[in-house]
Amino acid sequence: MFNEIKDVLVNAIHVDPALVTPSAILREDLDIDSLSAVELALELETAFDIRIEDEELVKLLTVQDVVDVVSGKKGA
């Protein structure tokens, strides 16, 4: 799941692949602002056929948080 999410980050948000680690902080390490976060959520929703609510989006601080939310929704 991590690698699939990494691909979305790299391709959709144009993040440097070398920076994408589970502990990477979205805002600080990957320079993802609120607009990029919304774009990321839309890309993830499309790629994984899930829905990420606004309340969930604001709680996503690290790449691992993104993996956890997507994994939880795919398993549901």
Report on the structure:
This protein is mainly α and 76 residues long. Helices cover 57% and strands 0% of the residues. It has helices at residues 2-12, 34-48, 54-57, 63-75. α1 (2-12) crosses α2. It starts with a helix and ends with a helix.
Describe the SSE topology.
Blueprint: H1 2-12, H2 34-48, H3 54-57, H4 63-75
Helix pairs in contact: 1-2
Short structural summary:
With 76 residues, this protein is mainly alpha-helical.
Shape: globular
State the CATH class. Mainly Alpha
Sequence stretches where pLDDT stays below 50 over 5 or more residues: none
Q: Note the total helix count.
A: 4
Keywords:
single chain; 76 residues; mainly alpha; Non-ribosomal Peptide Synthetase Peptidyl Carrier Protein, Chain A; 57% helix
